[in-house]
Amino acid sequence: MNLFVLVALVGTMQLPHANEGQKWHADYGEALKAAEAAKKPLLIVMHDPSAKAAPVSQVSRTDDPRLGELLSHYELCQIDVNSNYGQAVAKAFETNEVPFTVIIDRSAKKQMYRHAGGLDNGQWTTVLARYQTGAETVSFPRELNFSSGSSSGSFSRGRSC
C-alpha cells in the first residue's frame, strides 16, 4: 500500500471519543499499581456485568464528552463479582451489595469515596468531578462553632444562640 492511500484512509477515520481508548483493568492489584505509578486516583466499580443496568457501561458511555474528560483523570478498574476473584475483592472491601463504587486517592493509600448501589448520570458526573484530582477533600462538621469571645481560641460543639 502506498503512502498516499494510507494517508487518505487515516484522514477519513473518525477520532474516538475521549474515553473509548481508556483501559479498564480487571485486576485490582494491577490497577492499584498503575494508579500509584501514574499518580492518579483509582476508580473501582464492582458489579454484575449481566445485570440490566451495568454501571461500567453507564460510566463508560461515549455520548457525554465531559464524562470522557473526567474519566481521563482516573485509572479504571472493574471487578466482576460473579467470579471467585471478584467475590474475594468484594469481601476485602467489606461489601455484599453491588454495584459498589470506590475511589482511592492518588497515593493509592486511602479510600476517598465508597458507595453501595447505583448512581444516575448526574451523580456519576458529580462524583467524578469531585474526586478527579485524587487529593483528599477536607470538610469541617457544621456543628463546630468557633468562639471569638474566648482568649484561649477554643471552640465548642453545638449551635450558638
Mind sketching the topology for me?
Elements: H1 3-12, E1 24-25, H2 28-38, E2 42-47, H3 55-59, H4 65-71, E3 75-80, H5 84-92, E4 100-104, E5 111-116, H6 121-131, E6 144-146, E7 155-157
Parallel strand pairs: 1-3, 2-3
Antiparallel strand pairs: 2-4, 4-5, 6-7
Helix pairs in contact: 4-6
Task: Give a verbal description of the structure.
The chain has 161 residues and is α/β, with parallel strands linked by helices. Helices cover 33% and strands 19% of the residues. A five-stranded mixed β-sheet has the order 1-3-2-4-5, covered by helices on one side. A two-stranded antiparallel sheet has the order 6-7. Strand 6 and strand 7 form a beta hairpin. Helix 4 packs parallel to helix 6. The longest helix has 11 residues. The relative contact order is 0.16.
